[in-house]
DNA sequence: TTTTCGTTCCTAGCGCTGCTAGATCTCGGA
DNA sequence: TCCGAGATCTAGCAGCGCTAGGAACGAAAA
C-alpha cells in the first residue's frame, strides 16, 4: 500500500512538474516555443513520458489553462471586493482583467483564445472557469436591471476580450486603450 | 516589350491564382489544412514557386486577408446604406459583420485573429482594412456624441469581435447570441 | 538469494510542416 | 543554330506532434 501510494504521489508530482514547466516556458517564450521536445528536456524525461500523463500537447495546454484561470479568478475577486461601490467594482474588475491579459499574454491566450480541448459554457466547465465568470457576473449584476444576468455578463466579457485581443494582435493602437475602456464602461453602465 | 508584359501578366495571373487557391482551401478546410505543399499541388506548380511570389505562408495569408477585407467592407457598406435610419444602420452593420464571420470563419480569422504580417492601426494599413473600419465608423457616428469617433468605433468593433470569437471558440453558447448582440447594441446606442 | 514478471521508460522513427540550395530545363535573342 | 539568362523543379534541412518496440528496473515468488 505504501509503495503504491508513493508511486502515485511521485507521478502526481511529475504531472505538476510538467504543467509548471509548460506554463513557465509559455510565459517566457510563447506557446509556439512550447514543443514536446523542449518540454521533455526541461522536466528531464523523454518525450513519451509526457504522453503517459496527457493525451497530447493540447491536454497539457488545457491543464495550464485551468490552473491559470484559477489565478485570474482570484485576481478578479480581489479587485471586486476591494472596491467601495458598484461603479468602482466593475471598473476595477475590468482593469484587473485587462492587466492579467497584459502581464500574462500566454496564459490569457490559452484560456481564452487558443483552441484547447476544454468544455466551456456548459455545467462540465472546470470550476476555475466558472469562478472567473462568476466574478464578472457579480461586478455586472448591479447594472443588469431587467436583463438576463448571464447573457449580459457574457456580453461584458466579450467586449473586454475583444479590446484585449485586438490590441494584443496589433489591430488597435495601445495609446487609446484606457480611453476605449472608459468609453465602453460609460456606455455599459449607462 | 510585348514579351516582357506578357510574362508580367502571366505572373500576376498566377499570383492571383495562388491567392484564390489559398482562400478556397482555407474556406473549405480551415487554415491548418492550407500547407505550402497542398497549395502548390492545387495551382499545379512546385512549392518553391510560391516563394517567388510571396515571402512565405504568412504573406499569402496576408494577401487573402486584404482581399477578404474588401469583401467585408462591401457587405458592411451595403448593410449600412440600405438602412432607413441610424438605429437600423448600426444594427444592420452589426448583423452583417457577424454574418460575415459566420459564413466565412477562415476569412474572418485571417483578417482579425491570426498572426499575419500586416500593418494595422497605422496610415500604412491596406485601404481595404481602412474601408471596413470606415463603414463601422459611419454607423457609429450618430451615437458618438462628444466622444472621439475613432476610439468609440474601435470599442464598438472590439465588442463585436469579442462576441464573434468567443462564440466561435465555443466559449459562449450560440443560442444566446442574438440576445447578447441586442443587449450590447441597446447599451451602446444608449 | 535468485528468478520471474510487470511496469516504466527510452531510443528510434513515421509522416508531416515551412522553407531553400542547387541542378535542370525552357526559351528569347544573337 | 547556338548561347545565356531566367524560370522551375528535385531533393533536402531542421523541426513538429506523436508512437511502436525493446531495454532496464524493481517488486513479488521460488
TrEMBL record, chains A, B:
Residues 12-72 form the HTH tetR-type domain. It comes from the Bacteria. Residues 35-54 bind DNA. One of its GO terms (molecular function) is DNA-binding transcription factor activity. This is TetR/AcrR family transcriptional regulator. InterPro entries: Homeodomain-like_sf, HTH-type_TetR-like_transc_reg, HTH_TetR, MT1864/Rv1816-like_C, Tet_transcr_reg_TetR-rel_C_sf. The keyword DNA-binding applies. The keyword Transcription applies. Transmembrane segments: none annotated.
